[in-house]
Amino acid sequence: MKIKLVLLVTAGLLNVSLSTFDQSYNQVGYMQEGVGSYYADQFHGRKTANGERFNMNELTCAHPRIRFNTELKVINLINGKSVNVRVNDRGPYVDNRIIDLSLAAAKKLDMIRSGTAKLRYEVVAVEDMPVAVKERLEKERREADKKTGDVPVAKKKPSLLEKIGTVLGKKKGKTPEPKAEPQLDKPKRQPQPKTKEPVVVNQPQDPNPGEAETKPTPGGGQVDLPQRPRRKMPLTEATFEGINTYSIWGTIKYPEGFGVQVASFAVLEKVLEKGRQLNDQGFPEVFIQTGWAGDKRIYRLLVGEGPTSVAIGQLAELKTKGHSGFVKQHY
Hints:
By secondary structure, the chain is an alpha+beta fold. Among the domains are: about 20-150, RlpA-like domain (Barwin-like endoglucanases, Beta Barrel), CATH 2.40.40; about 245-330, Alpha-Beta Plaits (2-Layer Sandwich). It has helices at about 1-15, 20, 105-110, 130-150, 160-170, 270-280, 310-320, and strands at about 30-40, 60, 70-75, 80-90, 95-100, 115-125, 215, 220-225, 245, 250-255, 260-265, 285-295, 295-305, 325-330. Strand 12 and strand 13 (about 295-305) form a beta hairpin. The longest helix has 19 residues, at about 130-150. It is elongated, with a radius of gyration of 28 Å. The protein starts with a helix and ends with a strand.
């Protein structure tokens, strides 16, 4: 009886049921139904949330939380038409809408005239190579356009007689070849003494992991090459301009599962100060999740990643060090 009471109290403190922890928007097979819309000319050429330029003629979409480069199959429940799209943006920011499609995707679903439609989407692929997904979807779009006749007018190829006439015309009126310009003697390059760069083993790592260059050794291992001196760029609001999850050093991260939201700030300096404080207290996994609250930019500070059991344990450890929070799913 005591154990049940403790579980109920814990769930009440987190203000969310334990079953909510197990939901995942990033697994193959996840489905959702609701109203969808599309966006086009006004945003064409602007940067999307993942950093690329929005192209209304590509098969892409915006979703509030599904990971970038995930492939979705979207079905128009009114006419049964379907299209596969790639997530590369965040949105829509309109109540009761589940997805925002590009113009090309909306055309495939025949929802241009209505503007919105009752849709169902399903996660069909979580792709680690976004370029491969993009190329495949674009190939499918081009093939579908050829079948429907919705293709740009190609330039007319010259006929065989036109090619022969062009060749004969060139032979009759040969134009003199331009004279070569006199070449000036270039000063000979002085040989530079060869210096062998030392290979440094066990070089201290940069706080931004994955940026150090490595070189394979004959034995199959790797040694760290000396890093080039890099000018440290100041962290500004432009560093965190996308709707993403970042480290406190400004690099984009893709944490899995759940973390503990410790605080939410409207000022970047405050969230960075709090994040570094947590890092100094022994929490290595500190993330900044950017977003909007109405028309205000906000920065959510989360600690840790993993299943719900790990997040609950992380919350207990944070409380021992004077921090409060609640469990939240990473996008």
